[in-house]
């Protein structure tokens, strides 16, 4: 876990409303580059390469520290608190 205490006990919930894209991007008429899933609540949001960086915004709004890639074939996780892959 590379020293991150935030990811060990996370539940990895189902995505909110079986999301297939970033709901905030849909409202804004934007297209996400890649998707991330919050491992605390299941919220789906766009990555930092997307125009509005909704995954990072979700962390700042909720304090939920760990997201994982929601892209097919990817399973890595990012801890915003520790600024590291876990």
TrEMBL record:
<dbReference type="InterPro" id="IPR013083">
    <property type="entry name" value="Znf_RING/FYVE/PHD"/>
</dbReference>
<dbReference type="Pfam" id="PF02148">
    <property type="entry name" value="zf-UBP"/>
</dbReference>
<feature type="domain" description="UBP-type">
    <location>
        <begin position="2"/>
        <end position="86"/>
    </location>
</feature>
<protein>
    <submittedName>
        <fullName>UBP-type zinc finger domain-containing protein</fullName>
    </submittedName>
</protein>
<dbReference type="InterPro" id="IPR001607">
    <property type="entry name" value="Znf_UBP"/>
</dbReference>
């Amino acid at each position: 876990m590379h020293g991150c205490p935030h990811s060990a006990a996370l539940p990895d919930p189902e995505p909110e409303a079986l999301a297939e894209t970033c709901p905030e991007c849909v409202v804004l008429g934007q297209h996400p580059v890649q998707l991330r899933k919050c491992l605390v609540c299941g919220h789906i949001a766009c990555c930092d390469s997307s125009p509005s960086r909704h995954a990072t915004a979700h962390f700042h709004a909720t304090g939920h520290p760990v997201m994982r890639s929601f892209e097919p074939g990817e399973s890595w996780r990012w801890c915003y608190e520790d600024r590291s892959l876990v």
